[in-house]
């Protein structure tokens, strides 16, 4: 499905910072069949991930200086905002931290990278000539985002204030699961991290739609990645798996079976 607009608070872009861009290109091209188009930028190259010439995400080589400061391969989720400067005021007032930006990205738009009060990282995007991902609701596009944290009440207050989200709690197999909403649309979720998570920090997880979770999980192993959580059913939703790419980038895949 083509997308031509995002509203305040909707997930709009996925970007991989990679320690080994050649390895990342080979893995994701093999797994999802994305075309990858390199664009020169002052810092090097920004690689657009495309489906039928439509941008759906991007990746870039992490600079040596950032790597030396502890940066690792990871996906960053961008949320659309109408006024970046106003949103940053809300973020700092609510206990978040601006770690990169704000700055212009040519004529495409303006962005900033944020850590929420518990340290989960995400980005904001105020579009100009580039709205973000131009396809959704089809295989190999981002379909869901999910916050794992230890202080869900604090997160509800923060994201409702910063992005205007509503939220709805439900019981999912004995645990409380929160769905984030923009208007009447469910755009993401949240779960509380328990002792079983160990010392893993709070983080945002993105999900890509696939036609067969089991087939893709098998392909991950063939391509040099690792299946961290094997294909697992979510009642009335679908079947998902959590994946590590060959350089440690974490993401999830899901085969949607709504109502089945």
From TrEMBL:
<dbReference type="InterPro" id="IPR037523">
    <property type="entry name" value="VOC_core"/>
</dbReference>
<protein>
    <submittedName>
        <fullName>VOC family protein</fullName>
    </submittedName>
</protein>
<feature type="domain" description="VOC">
    <location>
        <begin position="141"/>
        <end position="256"/>
    </location>
</feature>
<dbReference type="Pfam" id="PF00903">
    <property type="entry name" value="Glyoxalase"/>
</dbReference>
<dbReference type="InterPro" id="IPR004360">
    <property type="entry name" value="Glyas_Fos-R_dOase_dom"/>
</dbReference>
<dbReference type="InterPro" id="IPR052164">
    <property type="entry name" value="Anthracycline_SecMetBiosynth"/>
</dbReference>
<feature type="domain" description="VOC">
    <location>
        <begin position="10"/>
        <end position="127"/>
    </location>
</feature>
<dbReference type="InterPro" id="IPR029068">
    <property type="entry name" value="Glyas_Bleomycin-R_OHBP_Dase"/>
</dbReference>
């Amino acid at each position: 499905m083509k997308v031509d607009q995002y509203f305040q608070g909707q997930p709009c872009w996925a970007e991989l910072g990679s320690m080994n861009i050649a390895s990342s290109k080979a893995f994701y091209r093999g797994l999802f069949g994305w075309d990858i188009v390199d664009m020169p930028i002052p810092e090097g190259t920004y690689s657009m991930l495309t489906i039928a010439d439509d941008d759906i995400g991007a990746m870039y080589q992490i600079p040596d200086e950032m790597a030396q400061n502890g940066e690792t391969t990871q996906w960053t989720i961008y949320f659309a905002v109408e006024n970046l400067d106003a949103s940053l005021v809300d973020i700092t007032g609510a206990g978040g931290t601006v770690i990169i930006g704000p700055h212009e990205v040519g004529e495409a738009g303006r962005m900033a990278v944020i850590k929420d009060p518990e340290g989960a990282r995400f980005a904001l995007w105020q579009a100009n000539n580039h709205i973000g991902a131009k396809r959704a609701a089809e295989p190999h596009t981002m379909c869901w985002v999910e916050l794992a944290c230890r202080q869900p009440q604090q997160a509800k207050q923060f994201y409702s204030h910063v992005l205007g989200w509503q939220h709805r709690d439900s019981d999912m197999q004995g645990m409380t699961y929160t769905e984030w909403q923009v208007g009447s649309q469910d755009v993401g979720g949240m779960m509380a991290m328990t002792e079983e998570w160990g010392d893993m920090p709070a983080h945002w997880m993105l999900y890509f739609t696939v036609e067969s979770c089991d087939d893709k999980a098998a392909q991950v192993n063939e391509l040099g990645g690792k299946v961290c959580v094997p294909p697992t059913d979510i009642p009335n939703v679908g079947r998902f798996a959590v994946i590590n790419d060959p350089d440690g980038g974490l993401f999830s895949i899901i085969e949607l079976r709504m109502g089945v």
